[in-house]
Design a protein that fits this description.
Blueprint: H1 26-38, H2 56-65, H3 72-106, H4 111-118, H5 129-144, H6 155-179, H7 181-196, H8 209-218, H9 224-228, H10 230-248, H11 256-268
Helix pairs in contact: 1-2, 1-3, 2-3, 3-5, 4-5, 7-8, 7-11, 8-10, 10-11
Length: 275
């Protein structure tokens, strides 16, 4: 007689490990995705559409649209990076959806109407108010993480940890920016000077987004966080200049001084010789 298979008892809700955020920050994931596409060694014209490492939603759209440009291990790694970046976006959206639900309720929206809008339907096609209510509970725990809530008490610790990690990452980013701000500011102004003199060629068909942002940034750096973000714009103009030179076969710069400034800028924002 065949013995029935013994299955382990279900894990109690209180002891289930809480889902954690991806280990790497969105900017790191985005930067690696860019490098994977750049390293393909093929036609890189589409890289001009790169939205910037600090735009995770745009990066995810870009990486999905051009996923088939990658092959083999690069294709697999990029898919994993996209998966993690999408998870970050989901986590980032939770507070906004929670706020929207609470505002809708305050405005008189019923749970039944909310369920209908969110397409929470039962097997008869009728809206299920309980599902909408459960969504709100899940979001509340994910955002606020109080230990006494119905779902996974340890989520509170996770939320606190995420917030601490985000604060640490931001503090490190700002500290790094502050440490090299004087150099970044000097090189940014030098880049603009050579660009305005026509010594750093620019695509006449391009909207000049990065150069415009850099021009605004050098004279509008009020806080440490804003000063740290200056490197984003310096990186953007260097990448844009390199892409245009490579595409047209022109020299990167018209003078040795301008070329030297571009090299210095690349070093400050951690771009290699091919970046």
């Amino acid at each position: 007689m065949r013995r029935p298979r013994r299955t382990p008892p279900p894990t109690a809700r209180e002891t289930r490990p809480a889902r954690q955020a991806p280990e790497q920050q969105p900017r790191v994931l985005a930067a690696r995705l860019y490098e994977l596409h750049r390293e393909t060694g093929k036609d890189e014209l589409y890289l001009e559409r790169w939205p910037g490492d600090h735009e995770p939603f745009g990066v995810l759209q870009f990486a999905q649209e051009y996923a088939t440009r990658l092959k083999g291990e690069a294709y697999r790694e990029a898919a994993v990076l996209r998966m993690q970046l999408a998870e970050w976006l989901r986590l980032a959206a939770d507070p906004f959806q929670l706020s929207a639900i609470d505002d809708a309720r305050a405005g008189g929206t019923s749970w039944k109407e909310m369920a209908l809008v969110l397409r929470y339907l039962d097997r008869f096609g009728e809206p299920n108010p309980g599902s909408a209510m459960n969504l709100r509970k899940r979001l509340y725990v994910a955002v606020h993480g109080r230990p006494g809530d119905r779902r996974q008490p340890q989520v509170a610790h996770l939320i606190d940890r995420r917030a601490m990690e985000a604060r640490i990452a931001e503090a490190q980013f700002i500290a790094a920016g502050e440490a090299r701000y004087a150099e970044l500011d000097a090189v940014a102004r030098a880049l603009l000077k050579h660009h305005e003199a026509g010594e750093i060629p620019a695509d006449p068909d391009d909207d000049g987004f990065w150069w415009e942002q850099l021009a605004e940034a050098v004279d509008d750096r009020r806080s440490a966080s804003e000063r740290a973000n200056l490197l984003v714009y310096v990186r953007g103009v260097v990448r844009e200049a390199r892409a245009y030179a490579k595409r047209t076969g022109q020299p990167l710069a018209a003078t040795e001084q301008a070329a030297s400034v571009l090299d210095a800028a690349a070093g400050l924002v951690d771009l290699d010789a091919d970046g």
